[in-house]
Amino acid sequence: MTVPRRTLDSLVTQVASELMAVDATTMASASERVLSWLVEHFDVDFSFLRFTDQKQRASILIAEWPPRPVAVDPDPLRVAYFDQTNSVFAQFEHATEPMVLRDSGEFPDYQQFILESTGYSQVSAAAVPLVSRDVSTGLLGFIKVGDRDWSTREVNVLKAIAALFAQLQARVEAEERLRYIAMHDDLTGLANRRALLEHMEDRLRPGSPGPVAAFFLDLDRLKALNDFLGHTAGDNFIRTLATRLRENLDPGDVIARLGGDEFVIVPAKPMDAAAAEREASRIQQLVARRVTVGEETVSRGASVGVALGIPGETTVADVLRRADHALLSAKSSGGNGVAVFTDAMRAQFELQDDVELNLRGAVADGSLVLHYQPEVDLRTGRVVALEALVRWQHPTRGLLPPGAFVGVAEATNLAGELGRWVIRTAAEQFAQWRRRGLASNVVIRINVSPVQLVSLDFVETIEGILRRYGIDGSSVCLEITEHVVVQDLARTQVTLRGLKRMGVQIAIDDFGTGYSSLSHLKALPVDAVKIDRGFVQRLGASADDLAIVKSIVGLAGSFGLGVVGEGVETTVAARTLVALGCYRAQGFLIARPMPGVEVEEHLAAGRIALDLDLPGTSRSVLPGAS
Ligand code: C2E
Ligand code: CA
Ligand code: CA
């Protein structure tokens, strides 16, 4: 390869443009190319570039020309520590000015090679330090067999080139540092989310060895530690755990901290489910061991979720989601344990995915249906209300209950759309019944999800629908869960007052399962509570539940609230409710939720016959009573 002889100035320009676009990965080859030009241009026999690692106090070989045959591995010239007494580079550790060494034997190692390969007995050298902010950061060296003089002009050119290399060095180091920061967690120095994703992407590429295991690890109750011992203690705890993990796992295993107390570990070795579970248990025990933080010795249980990915088949997102899902299952079964992602979890997952994917379409294409469950006065059997309960006629999974998709709708921003569909459809059906003389003294009950309730235009939406179908507000009762009431009392208050202005009734659903006491509800314009079916179902079997129902009925009475018992499955439960003074009820004993056409029969009859054998009556349903 012949390089045209350049003038000294154009040489510097050429080197500058060569090094301009270089990064960490191309640095060695570009430097080698430049060295080859320098060797050619200055007519020397050998040249090298070394960077100083100030932390390790060592000189690191970056490039050399011509390439030296390396006899021993590792090449003893690759990393030369300055405090090793025989290091020839030590004398340049702090050098900032070029040195020309004529026939002085300053580079015995290189000299040896050159002497051997050329047969000459004399060398001379030029050593040009790389200088950055007055600190020596490396060395550019030239060796010539025999004697060579260097003109001031040549030395100045070498200085200029050394400066270019120093710039390159600083830039690459800064880039590396940025890359390190971008890929590592500040607190622990472990990999961060981004690094984890890149690594997993790599491991799951088609053809890579698998299965690839992922462990999702989460500490139980870390928050309490932060609260009681302070955040510094919490941080130290995390750091100690990070070190412990690093020390006890294979160096190739990737340990990432995703923030908080969440870690993901991807073992370097491919493993099957059984091996993964064993390894996860080992890690779980490792983490659950006590840690000394300052004065205190603390231990936190840890839960681990395990999932496997097959390269070329499973995506990174899938593996992480599965591991996360398994983690949830580990936590919900008490914590401090390991759970492997199972087929049952997969089925649950697929259902969720499916729902997410198809629900929006279902809202639009008519595959949602409303069923109606009558509510009666137990004393008379008169139908006093209908509760609209949504179902999804799914193309492959059959008729899905709301439990299978309402939660997903709420988690995926579809709650508003679904809710509007329910309210509109119920209102339309209800208006149609009314026009036909059915349901005149009946209230339509509609379930409202918490997300809907806090949406800004909820009141307007209801108002619009009622106006459109000509329904007076007092014929409508919205059911909200106790949960939402407690969560956002202020917001709920505003919305409920707006609804009240239209005369719309409000009932608290599933009452007794949440944390609110009736006194909470005093602040809200609520008309009725529905006693959760869990309590009602066991009336007659559980003394506790009897006591709870009794107190709810009593309290509701003293607050002037209506009360409805739901989940009435037995005559015992129905009789008990009546005895306690709760007359309105709903449940399978009375009627199941049913399609609109079927419920019309009950509406037409106006009552549902019940055989409760209530005291003081020969028949449960008094003829003519209403
Ligand atoms: P919920 O509001 O408590 O509705 C009553 C649920 O209890 C219904 O279940 C009903 O089928 C069931 N049920 C009624 N009587 C009995 C009984 O005697 N025994 C037993 N074991 N169960 C009985 P469903 O239809 O599966 O609805 C479940 C939940 O889904 C509802 O509970 C409600 O919270 C929610 N949901 C239903 N429709 C909608 C809707 O349109 N929008 C919203 N946001 N949620 C809805
Ligand atoms: Ca309800
Ligand atoms: Ca309920």
Structural description of this entry:
The protein has 21 helices and 23 strands. The longest helix has 32 residues, at 152-183. The radius of gyration is 39 Å and the shape is elongated. The model is unreliable at 618-626 (pLDDT under 50). Helix content is 44%, strand content 22%. A hairpin with a 2-residue loop joins strand 10 (291-293) and strand 11 (296-298). It is of the alpha/beta class and 626 residues long. Helix 1 packs parallel to helix 4 (152-183). Among the domains are: 8-183, GAF domain (Beta-Lactamase), CATH 3.30.450.40; 193-341, Alpha-Beta Plaits. One calcium ion binds at residues 387, 447, 479, 509.
Return the CATH architecture of the domain at 8-183. Answer: 2-Layer Sandwich
Indicate the percent of residues in helices: 40-55%
Q: Which fold does the CATH topology of the domain at 8-183 refer to? A: Beta-Lactamase
- What is the helix tally? 21
Instruction: Write out the CATH superfamily name of the domain at 8-183.
Output: GAF domain
Give me the secondary-structure category: alpha/beta
